[in-house]
Write a structure and sequence with these properties.
five-stranded mixed sheet, single chain, alpha/beta, Rna Polymerase Sigma Factor, Chain: A, 3 domains, globular
Length: 385
């Protein structure tokens, strides 16, 4: 039996993780849950899984929950989330809080000696060096939950020697606009951008998938997770999202991980690692799929991917700025305050204005995050594209 705590239990990944835990009750015990403010859903999760401790980051929401349920200890604020992440009897922490808010509880869980099933991109995008240093010092492991990194993780089980890796190949669906022209993209609406062809996800990640910024974040994550240079990380468009990623070795052989596109498989692989169990997803029928399609990425049409490579290569506080500027710009696009192609323009302008700190502390990263948000909000408000 493995005791797990889930940070971000009311989000998309958290909900699917609990579906996995429910199907494997003889293997996984949910001992802690943390969320932002969704009282009603967290209450349902408490009643079903009966964790030992829960937390709501929003203190008003935590007080509401305390008044509604008495069978579990209810904590509040970021301190409460950290307590859920660091409980002594937790074996594995699923880090699925959205945004840079997930960074500090992830770091605290690592320092407490917990293995991490990582679904929070921002932890490695904004503070990869700090996270990996803490992981080495605490002698814990990070098991990636993202489909692409989970695929590479599984492929590398066959051969982990870095000298044998020629290339990591991340696959991208291309989102809803892979066959649109640049001119077309100037006029797409938020409603169109939210119609992802293969996945059902939250609003920000869906837009990031449409701009390929999400793939850029994954490139930066891969650099830290697998300790490879950016020159060895490629992205290819793969329409069907059947191949989740690949590893090319120096002898020319390529290993790939395939399944139908269902995040529950990658979540389960992370939660049960190193064991495998029967899953909730359907078996992949390649004959029914018929064919798999690929195409190269047009960096001019999807400049966010280019900027992510640039930020990752420069490093320091710049990836945090990249993430924050994108988050604010995506929010403005969803609120019809920016055009789709303006997202990349805002990101570029914010990156160019930032004075990079090359070897940042956690405080430096958090300050860069705040600076980028303030700068981005100001130029959007003032129409300074």
């Amino acid at each position: 039996m493995k005791n797990i705590s889930i940070l971000g239990s009311t989000g998309s990944i958290g909900i699917q993780a609990l579906q996995v835990a429910d199907s494997l009750r003889d293997q996984l015990k949910v001992v802690g849950l943390a969320a932002k403010s969704n009282v009603s859903l967290l209450k349902e999760q408490i009643e079903k899984f009966k964790p030992h401790v829960v937390a709501l980051e929003d203190e008003i929401s935590a007080e509401l929950l305390k008044n509604q349920i008495k069978i579990v200890e209810v904590l509040s604020g970021m301190d409460g989330v950290i307590k859920v992440a660091t409980m002594p009897y937790t074996d594995l922490v699923l880090s699925a809080i959205v945004g840079i808010a997930g960074l500090i509880p992830t770091l605290e869980a690592i320092k407490a000696g917990k293995d991490i099933a990582l679904a929070n991109k921002e932890s490695l995008v904004t503070a990869g060096s700090l996270v990996m240093k803490s992981m080495a010092e605490a002698n814990v492991q990070i098991i990636p939950v993202d489909g692409e990194h989970g695929a590479i993780f599984q492929c590398l089980l066959a051969d982990k020697r870095h000298e044998n890796i020629r290339k990591l190949i991340l696959t991208a669906s291309g989102g809803p606009f892979r066959n649109r022209t640049i001119n077309d993209l100037e006029h797409v609406s938020p409603e169109q951008a939210l119609k992802h062809p293969n996945w059902k996800m939250g609003p920000r990640i869906t837009i990031d998938s449409a701009t390929l910024m999400n793939k850029g974040f994954e490139v930066i994550e891969a650099r830290w997770l697998f300790n490879v240079d950016f020159s060895k990380i490629d992205v290819i468009i793969h329409w069907e999202s059947i191949i989740h990623s690949m590893v090319e070795f120096i002898d020319g052989s390529i290993l790939a991980q395939l399944s139908i596109p269902d995040m529950r498989l990658q979540i389960q692989s992370a939660l049960t690692y190193p064991e495998r169990r029967g899953s909730l997803i359907s078996t992949l029928d390649l004959a029914k799929v018929g064919q798999l399609n690929f195409q190269s990425v047009d960096m001019e049409k999807f400049p966010c991917l280019k900027y992510a490579y640039e930020a990752g290569k420069i490093g320091g506080t710049l990836p945090a700025v990249l993430n924050s500027a994108d988050e604010v710009a995506v929010g403005a696009f969803l609120n019809h305050k920016l055009g789709f192609m303006d997202i990349s323009k805002i990101v570029k302008k914010t990156m160019e204005a930032h004075q990079v700190i090359s070897d940042p502390s956690l405080a430096d990263i958090m300050n860069a995050d705040k600076w980028a948000r303030d700068f981005t909000e100001r130029i959007i408000k003032n129409g300074e594209l």
